[in-house]
Amino acid sequence: MITVDEIYSCLQQEESPVIEFKRDWYWSDSTPSQELARQWGELQKDLISLCNAYIGYCGVNRYLIVGFSETERKIHSLDLSAIKKLKDLKAFKKELIVKLEKLVKNPPLNLEIETVLIEGQTLLVFKIPSPTSITELKNELQTKTITIMSGIIIVRKGQDADSVRAASPEETSELIAQFSSYKDALAKQKPKQDAKRDRSIKNTVDLYIDKNRSLSIDEGYPVIVKDWGENILFEVFKLKQQFSPPTYFLYIHEHAAQNKTYEYIQKNKLIETNATQIILTERPLDLKDLERRKTNLKARFKTDHVFFIDEFGYKNLYSEHMLEYRPYRVENYVEGIADIGGDDKKKALDQLTDWYESVSNPLMVIKGFGGIGKTTLVKQFLDSVYDANEDAGILFIDSNEIVDELIKIARSDHRIDDIYDFYLAQMKKRDFDGKGFSKELLKLSVDNGNLLIVLDGIDEVIAKLGTGFDVSSFISSISTSYTTNLERTKIVITCRDYFWDTLEYKTQIEEITLEPFSEDLAKNFFEKYFDGDQAKVTKALKMASDFSLNGEGNKGELVYIPYVLDMIAYLIKQHSEFRGNEKSSSHARLLVHTIPNDFLILSVCEREVEKLGNFSIDNQVDFFVNLSTQENGYVTDYDIKSISPCEIDDQTIAKLKGHPLLHHNQGKLNFRYDFFNEYFKGLSIYNYFLTQDSQLLNEKLIELIGSYVRHGNQLCSTLCKKLEYSEEIVFFIMETIERLHALVESAEPSEKTTYLSAISSSFILNIALLMESGDIKYDISSATELLMTIFGESSEEVNGLVLMNVIAGESKKLTFDLKSKTIRNSHFERYDYFWDCSFDESTHFVSSSFSQLEPRKGLRPPVVPTFEDCDTVDIQHIISKRMEEDDAQQDKLKEKIKRIFELFKERGNFYPQKQQYINSKIFTGKTLQILVKNGAIEEYIDKKKPTLRQYKVSDDYRGIQKFVDQGTPCIELDRILDFFK
Q1: Which residues on adjacent β-strands are paired with residue 671?
Q2: Where does 229-369 have alpha helices with state H?
Q3: What are the beta bridge partners of residue 164?
Q4: Pairing of strands 451-456, 393-398
Q5: What is the DSSP letter of 164?
Q6: Which residues in 45-111 belong to E strands, given as ranges?
Q7: Which long-range contacts (CB under 8 A, 24 or more apart) does 659-665 make?
């Protein structure tokens, strides 16, 4: 296929070994026959020389363009109707190929010949995809000036870069080698899929009609032609309106041959003469002069109404619904590094930019733990998009702001599974009813690339909505519903890694994981923050070293969390302006000096005590804990007093609004960083287990425990540093679990998951404390003992065990010995180590449920326990596969047993055989040893031959002959099979 864009690109270049320009065609209809033969030869010479081109041009397409003057840099439109041979290009190509086949070895059979219209003027273009072998004359060629002998290799590089001559032997050898290398490289490449994307403007036209209700599609339309062979690719919609002439919408595919398409439409009279026609086409991604494509279409189709599809949609359908974007202009921004998979690292902003410029890659997930800078990175990225194009549609959705609205939507029996749900929740603040900007318009604007959407902190939605948020369907919808036509959808999601990594989805998604700052980046940040004041930079780096972490690389370099650096910078800056100490010597009930985050919060709160009067460090911390558990993530000015742990006056409230951990705006008080929200939720959980007061177990706390305590996550690790494993904590967790079980029994089905998650998380915390305990060795035995202490009804029976969201990772394996145990009324969901646990045939599950328990990679369940009255639908495929494997293994074992006993069979009975003979058979091996060990086969000494070592079939097992002879079951076979269990 030859496109206008590629030919326009050729016209910007000089002639070369792969590009030849001709102002006029080689002959006219009045050319004498003798001269005509030479002109045919001239055309063939140009094409053959283009095939070989010159050294260094293998793999590059070749072009002969007729109708363009290189000296004038001007198009001289070609009138094909004036040249008889060119009136039918198909017939001309066929004749040309026949001539070339007679003339040369390896002729260009894939030669393309098409007319191309540029600025209303016609060019005739010959395109030769790069050959894979040299093109050699096998007969002599007569041109208008010379005769070229057979065996000659014609190339294009003489005194000028494009002049034609015979190649030297050295040049010929090098060309042959380069063509051969190119051919080998092509063979190794995966076959390229033709980019034949079927696109349509149907949705655009339908939405245009929705907006202009007086219009409708006329009978017989649309007309859709997709002839990929001839590249005639278009759609025509005829819109009628009473008392007005019709309007035609014409879609020209980006790969359409414009001349052929135009001629087809004219020939079939699909558009009335002088009727209004609106042409839509794709915006080219690799063409600098975008208007060039529209100019060519305007000239060819004789209309001024030519738009790119996304341009038309923006101007005529949804521009008024685009919200204003105000740049964030993040202060002291330092570009961090992102892990993009494997061993690859890249600047985070560069990775986002590359993704944004790609096609058919709709979703980017930015992962990392709290305070790592996910939101900061996104805001910097959005600013860069805005700076490049101020008309870009940008929608930033903060999950904390909309989660309450999403909960309301979910409570109305509507599962959250679509971006439009998030958009509606965001627009509730504007009393938006969804009538103007419909779901279909949102889909179109996103697919067209007119609207970039960011969903910041989606983990907050996952945590609060639970099963009300169908994450899998949500992710799938982005690819299936929002990436259907132009495929320029761009949606960014930020999420804490431990939330995202617990999700299951089948769609391939691009992800980056933000990494902590290196020491160089930390220094760079402080230099920006302190405007190059080296004394403060040095002091900040010294303080930051106390909060540094060990990197994961082999060098063991220290790394730093960005939010910690920001708080350190704040402390130093405040000290500089208001005096005082940067570090704290105070104590607080819920904060531990040896834990960096606690110590940092302690330092900040201590600095605020004097400013806040009687609002102590503990008061501040309790206030923040209460704030973190607010359903909407903020508190209004009117409710600040209600979450204070002590009485406060208006003056204190006014000062509290300026607290460095808080942000106040439009009558709402929330945390400055989303990290603090999670951090203080963690303190709320810690407070419960520290005080061991079960009266504190309310619905909010149950939800927090179930959502935030996970095996191996940061919060669980921190709790283990602050709590000690003891009998008291074990008994308190038992009491907690008993209360939760009571709630499960009385709960609605939709509420049970919350309570079950809390049971699992409480038990996992207890296990984690055991792991970190120095007094008791952690292994499968001690873990099982703890399980039996909490859930055991007797030494052999477990009741009410719940294990959920235990994800395999770097933490120790969480497994239990469940051999010879009955497990009742239990629930297992996303417990990655389920099949690692020890089972036997006496392991018996009763009235229990199982979900998402795929065996870990490379693990084959050794034993499948028995199930009675259980919900095993989600693991039935695992059980069936294991049973099929067992059956296959049993069949192999039976066959081996049969072959061994056949060795003893002679004359219709079993006779003793030499041990040497039996042992010499390769297949006997361990199977024979087990048969001998269990007495099915015995060592035998014949009194007549006492020195001869023999085996014989035991008298107790001679009945197996029934199986050996007839293949029918028998009790002796059953006993033997039992040896191998």
Answers
A1: 662
A2: 258-267, 290-301, 309-313, 348-357
A3: 156
A4: parallel
A5: E
A6: 62-66, 68-69, 74-75, 104-105
A7: 659/608, 659/612, 659/620, 660/567, 660/570, 660/574, 660/604, 660/608, 661/601, 661/604, 661/624
User: Side by side, which strands form the sheet with 19-22?
Assistant: 19-22, 62-66, 121-128, 112-118
**Helices then strands (H, E): number in the chain?**
33, 43
- Report helix angle 749-772 to 714-722, nearest 10: 50
Q: What's residue 318's pLDDT?
A: 86
Q: What percent helix, strand, coil does the chain show, rounded to 5?
A: 45, 20, 35
Distances (CA, A) of 597 to 505, 557, 579, 586, 593: 33, 20, 23, 15, 9
Are 791 and 738 in contact by the 8 Å Cβ rule? The answer is no
Q: What is the Cα–Cα distance from 802 to 44, expressed in whole angstroms?
A: 80
Closest CA to 664 of 682, 684, 637: 637
Cis peptide before 32 (omega within 30 of 0): no
Instruction: With beta carbons less than 8 A apart as the criterion, state whether 913 and 929 touch.
Output: no
Residue 22 CA to residue 596 CA, distance in Å, equals 75
CA 649 to chain centre: 50
b/e 383-401 (16+ beta carbons within 10 angstroms → b): bebbeeeeebbbbbbbbbb
pLDDT digits (tens, 9 = 90+) for 14-48: 999 999 999 999 999 888 988 999 999 999 999 99
DSSP state of 517: B
Q: Taking the C-alpha atoms of 403, 406, 412 and 417 in order, what is their torsion angle to the nearest 10 degrees?
A: -130
Q: Of 290, 62, 51, 297, whose CA–CA distance to 154 is shortest?
A: 51
pTM exceeding the 0.70 threshold for the entire prediction: no
d(C-alpha 693, C-alpha 152), whole Å: 97
Residue 554 has a pLDDT of 42
On the question of pLDDT at 666 being above 80, the answer is yes
Q: 126: which strand partners?
A: 64, 113
Provide the H-helix boundaries in 546-585. Answer: 562-578
Q: Which residue has the tokens 């067209």?
A: 448
CA distance 621 to 608: 12
Provide the percentage of residues in the chain whose pLDDT is more than 70. Answer: 94
Residue 333, token pair as written in the block: 């921004």
List all residues 6 or more positions away from 541 whose beta carbon is below 8 Å from its beta carbon: 519, 522, 523, 526
Q: How far is CA 34 from CA 48, 82, 968, in A?
A: 21, 20, 94
Q: What is the DSSP letter of 335?
A: -
Looking up tokens 């907050």, which residue turns up?
460
- Burial of 529 per CB tally in 10 Å (0-12, 13-18, 19+): buried
- SS3 at position 38: helix
3-state secondary structure of 794: strand
Burial (0-12, 13-18, 19+ Cβ within 10 Å), 23: middle
Q: Which tokens in the block code for residue 639?
A: 């409710």
Q: What angle do CA 754, 758, 763 make, to 5 degrees?
A: 155
CA separation, residue 576 to residues 309, 581, 604 (Å): 57, 10, 14
In b/e form, how buried is each residue of 147-178, taking b as 16+ CB within 10 angstroms? ebeeebbbbbbeeeebebeebeeebbeebeeb
Torsion of CA 962, 964, 967, 973, to 10 degrees: 70
Residue 584 — φ and ψ, nearest 5°? -100, 145
The strand pairing partners of 560, in sequence order, are 517
> Helix, strand or coil for residue 375?
helix
Rg of the chain, C-alpha, whole Å: 39
Of 874, 825, 877, give the one whose Cα is nearest residue 852.
874
Which is more confident, 842 or 577? 842
